[in-house]
């Protein structure tokens, strides 16, 4: 050991079909994007020099580290080699820390590199109203048990604007979220056994009790927009966007561990509004907002597609749709490649009721943060201009990650 450890962050795009085969694009809160061509796996790797956590940087101990053997704790991280610290020259490696994805290091000293976090989403009820179950469904398992501990601080059901649930009848509101083991035969969890649905209609599959067709699953209440919305839709200018309806939102507050610089997760967006209501006022949205340690003053969007578009019907690129052939096709004022075809829509309800309609396919997102700081993410789905023609977002596969730019907040 010479006291030097290289940390590498890689954003990887996978190519193929849909249930773990679909193309996954990576976005970093509206920052850099990566595109895939030719169906091959593509990796982008960035390295640099710095301190403070895992990610795209090299961490160097100075002066050079001399282990000396147990029970020493040379890096002062609370673990000695005798207690399982496999790198006592780095405070960012020990058995009490999580594995950080894509950095090619054994961060938690379990002998494995870049493994997925252990899931905690087995046997969760479809209709659970406990927001902690929703967090478990997306692999947010580790709880922050005190003010200095990392992990999930809290999870809450909110309105998309952050207002409490008094704005809606709970019995009507809670049909807008559900925990499922699949969404049709071709869309499966990206980690563990479950994933979370958020819907402006019913977050249910056609075979589930309480399901209503996305064509008309109106829940009957209005809601305020998240801060910064409704956003502009450059492909469809001068649309008379109306009020928001039937919104649902999961808000989670996380405290980043010392060796992480971001949170990574998977997402997918379905809408009945595609294609017949594109470039109209019916601009249904799937929104993620990030708030840092500033009392909610600095709120940033954090959910973008592979072309850096927000997840709104009038801007997002739907890639699970029907062009009727291999050529590009145009709906309203936009062009789509529909490269996934209709397979991701089958068994979801979005392939019927005047369909097939549209979905993005699985995408990746990374939200940067500061080690040891709290980060609040609110994920919301809502109808726009009416409560009909509903939309559904899917979340899964949360884990801690590095960041090629180093520790930062969204600009």
Number of domains: 1
What is the terminal separation in angstroms? 37 Å
- Mean pLDDT score: 81
Rg computed from alpha carbons, rounded to a whole number of angstroms? 22 Å
Shape: elongated
What is the element string, with H for helices and E for strands?
EEEEEHEHEEEEEEEEEEEEE
Number of E-state strands: 19
Helical content stands at: under 10%
| Beta fraction | 25-35%
Low-confidence stretches: 1-63
Structural class: mainly beta
Number of helices: 2
- Biggest beta sheet summary: 7 strands, mixed
Short description:
The chain is built from two helices and 19 strands.
Question: What does this 3D model show about the protein?
Answer:
49% of the residues are buried. The protein has one domain. It starts with a strand and ends in a 10-residue tail after the last strand. Helices cover 3% and strands 26% of the residues. The chain is mainly β.
Features:
3% helix; 2 helices; 411 residues; mainly beta; elongated
How does the SSE layout of this entry go?
Elements: E1 4-7, E2 9-13, E3 26-27, E4 42-46, E5 57-60, H1 131-137, E6 151-158, H2 170-173, E7 177-180, E8 195-199, E9 222-223, E10 244-255, E11 262-271, E12 285-291, E13 299-301, E14 329-331, E15 334-336, E16 358-359, E17 363-368, E18 374-384, E19 391-401
Parallel strand pairs: 3-17
Antiparallel strand pairs: 1-5, 2-4, 6-10, 7-8, 8-19, 9-10, 10-18, 11-16, 11-17, 11-19, 12-13, 12-18, 14-15
